[in-house]
Amino acid sequence: xxxxxxxxxxxxxxxxxxxxxxxxxxxxxxxxxxxxxxxxxxxxxxxxxxxxxxxxxxxxxxxxxxxxxxxxxxxxxxxxxxxxxxxxxxxxxxxxxxxxxxxxxxxxxxxxxxxxxxxxxxxxxxxxxxxxxxxxxxxxxxxxxxxxxxxxxxxxxxxxxxxxxxxxxxxxxxxxxxxxxxxxxxxxxxxxxxxxxxxxxxxxxxxxxxxxxxxxxxxxxxxxxxxxxxxxxxxxxxxxxxxxxxxxxxxxxxxxxxxxxxxxxxxxxxxxxxxxxxxxxxxxxxxxxxxxxxxxxxxxxxxxxxxxxxxxxxxxxxxxxx
Length: 322
Hints:
The protein is mostly beta strands. The protein has two domains: 27-198, Immunoglobulin-like (Sandwich); 202-321, Fimbrial-type adhesion domain (Immunoglobulin-like), CATH 2.60.40. It is 6% helix and 44% strand. It contains one helix and 20 strands. The strands form five sheets. A five-stranded antiparallel beta sheet has the order 1-3-8-6-5, with no helix packed on it. A five-stranded antiparallel beta sheet has the order 13-14-19-17-16, with no helix packed on it. Strands 7-4-10-11 form a four-stranded antiparallel beta sheet, with no helix packed on it. β5 and β6 (98-104) form a beta hairpin. The chain is rod-shaped, with a radius of gyration of 36 Å.
């Protein structure tokens, strides 16, 4: 009986040894990160793009008794005001108007800083090697850009806040070498904000008003040109014309080899409404659409004593008040 008991005890011990698992290596590397805000300042998305940078700083520590390796990934989503947009992203003002922008990993602004969990799947990946009970730190630059050519951007203050689950830090750890891929377990966040102010902007250009070649000035000679105005959406503006370089009082005059030649500029095709520069009186009033708006200048050289033959000209300054 004693031999049987010993045999049974030995069998039980063998089973216990066989099923005891090897202890798994717990994650030893922990990381934290901060991101500075992206402040674009004043922007004019009608005609140009605006760039601004931010800096990610991270620190990783290793609690293990041996060197550990990891691929640390930094994901950025659409932001609290992003409305699900990832390429491009968007900011919003208090009324819900949109301003499009993007965040990039590289100075060439070609690789989007994206997320493993949303939208463009291009998070920033950093491989780290951390000695036993040591730490490692580093930084990465984020390159922001407000997209140019936005005709619907209303002047005002815009923002997109990347807090909570709109950022994610993940760690994929190994005991031999960095895995080179991102973990799906979110360990922490690195909140930041993106802000911009769309300023009230207008741009103006004009074609030359050429009355052509005329003989005797026995009757009116008419001509026309075009002023192109581009103002931000919703901006009220007035376009005024000064009296030129050779005026006497309010009479506009061109100059040439024979002296001075009278002419006038009008707001209407009937040439009864003079185009001047007095606000709310003889200017042309408009409302910006974000696109180019064409205004016609109606010119007239009235019948008068014909001066010496030659080229006569004047320069008019256009003023857009908004």
